[in-house]
Amino acid sequence: MKEVTLSAPTELKNIAPAQQKASLQPLMNIVKSDLDDTNQIILDRMHSDVELIPTLARHLIAAGGKRLRPVLTLGAAKLCGYEGDRAKKLAACVEFIHTATLLHDDVVDESNLRRGNQTANALWGNQASVLVGDFLFSRSFQLMVEDGSLEVLRILSGASAVIAEGEVLQLMNVGDITLTEESYFKVIAAKTAALFTAACEVGAVVADRSKKEIEALGDYGTNLGIAFQLIDDALDYSSEQQSLGKAIGDDFREGKVTLPVLLAIRKATPEETKFWARVIEDNQKDGDLEHALELIEKHGTIEDTFASARKYGALAKEALNTFEDSDVKSALIDAVDFAIERAY
Amino acid sequence: MKEVTLSAPTELKNIAPAQQKASLQPLMNIVKSDLDDTNQIILDRMHSDVELIPTLARHLIAAGGKRLRPVLTLGAAKLCGYEGDRAKKLAACVEFIHTATLLHDDVVDESNLRRGNQTANALWGNQASVLVGDFLFSRSFQLMVEDGSLEVLRILSGASAVIAEGEVLQLMNVGDITLTEESYFKVIAAKTAALFTAACEVGAVVADRSKKEIEALGDYGTNLGIAFQLIDDALDYSSEQQSLGKAIGDDFREGKVTLPVLLAIRKATPEETKFWARVIEDNQKDGDLEHALELIEKHGTIEDTFASARKYGALAKEALNTFEDSDVKSALIDAVDFAIERAY
């Protein structure tokens, strides 16, 4: 859990509106004890006598990351006043599904690096990544069955199907410079936001809250998830990221049309359109990423993407109006700002 | 459903003990009407607005195959006197899980052909195969949730985890000429028999039968599944298959040590051991498969593998002793002989 950044770096604050430093820390403090238990459940339940499974799972799960999705389940349960143990186990289910999708994503993207570490498929091969992903996915459903809520099973099996649909849609959209904003948002709502939605809903379900409250937390998760992915997509073209020594341009190299590019294509001169058609649809050569970054900067589409993320962030916060003010509610609101201001 | 072979070809009958022609037809006749409904559920529920999903799923599902696993669910339910609709939907769940594992297997094995047809990954790429497999797997759990039985969810989520474990174990065993019979059987029990077990148990669960009867049908499925895989592994080295124009030697080329090879290694002369070490652990050249077939024939290990399959087949039949004699029971017994005498 070492990656929690207390504030956004200076460069990004110039893009984000002037405000207090956003942090995930208040939410992390509130769920800390539960999250420790969730982490223990994750370690215990990724066990298998087939050694490669825990070895590979540990590589990805123990590598850290923010555990944002299980934290949302725990935070949503807290917001609803839930005090029992079920949320901890279900938070582990959410993390297992997330990990399974990461393992399969890296195979799909043919990625060799994730957060600067070698990916599981680079270390152990695509085959192991596919199969260990399948194991974690199955294990997640086994844990849900142990919990015994058909409503939770409905939410998370539904989210899993939607995630797979979103990933397939993204695959079909690769190399398409005519991609519409509507199609782009459809993809990110499915591949990313659906699990945020489900993670939050599950927290309300274990607390046995009303349909209205379950939906409100679901809306919070959906809009937070969209904002989160928009920032991810912006950071992949961020010169600030590059100056911090982080890899950028993954989406570009894969021919994925994300919002910064989609908006730059919309504003392109005829000559720029030719450039985008070649690099996205056809082939790339040295210097293309640099030229793409220039065009993105010229048209200010990173700023546009951040503005869009802030819009969804505002919707996420608004969704919490259903709930009375509390420390947990404030912490969930801070988490939205954190997701937008984060630099990784 | 065109592939149902009414009898084993002449060549194989020389290996199988003298007996009446075995056939899957009696079981197919008994479940025909239910299976038609299951096929309709499969077609309806593999739908997605993301077109590539039904296109790719249809390629694999509509390509036929015997639908052996859903047929077992329907047959087991019939044996237990079940007359309702639930078994049809759950049989579709079983087939979706099977299809998802096939899609992921073909990525894992880097196969380009399955039953003489191009595999989905050869046609649409590994990425699509991984993701559509994930979709079908999720859809299967959605259907189980609709059915509403936590016991069914427990059985099929457990089977899915075991299948993934078996596949990983198999991957770890590739190229290992010291593989033990125990390890080999552990792999096939997990990767193949677990879903046969679950498919049969589910049929008894919907009929609300006793634990003893659920277990008896589970034992039937387990032993049938092991016999089925043993025959699969034998046929991959069968000169009769080759003379019928079917591809053989897939396992050999992948360095998978299956029973015919494992037993040939055990009986090998020092010189033969050197051959196996080179071709399984290291590299293969032209003529190696032919030499492997000679050694397998010399040591009679195809016959040994068939004998082992017949032993498991006998255990499968014995497991049905719990049930009174009936047409369904006879048909399930015939299905065991069919699995052993089949030529594909």
- Main β-sheet, spatial strand arrangement of chain A: 1-2
* Content-based structural category of chain A: mainly alpha
Poorly predicted regions of chain A are: 1-18
Oligomer: homodimer
**What's the gyration radius of chain A in Å?**
20 Å
Q: What is the fourth-level CATH superfamily of chain A?
A: Farnesyl Diphosphate Synthase
How many DSSP E strands of chain A?
Answer: 2
Measured between the Cα atoms of the first and last residue of chain A, the distance is: 14 Å
CATH architectural group of chain A: Orthogonal Bundle
Largest interface: A-B, 41 and 41 residues
Global geometry of chain A: globular
Number of helices of chain A: 17
Give me the strand/helix succession of chain A: HHHHHEEHHHHHHHHHHHH
**Average of per-residue pLDDT values of chain A:** 90
Helix content of chain A: over 70%
Percent strand of chain A:
under 5%
The fold-level CATH name of chain A is: Farnesyl Diphosphate Synthase
Please characterize this protein's 3D structure.
The structure is a homodimer of 344-residue chains. Chain A is mostly helical and 344 residues long. Chain A has one domain: Farnesyl Diphosphate Synthase. Chain A has 17 helices and two strands. A two-stranded antiparallel ribbon of chain A has the order 1-2. In chain A, strand 1 and strand 2 form a beta hairpin. In chain A, helix 9 crosses helix 10. The radius of gyration of chain A is 20 Å and the shape is globular. The relative contact order of chain A is 0.13.
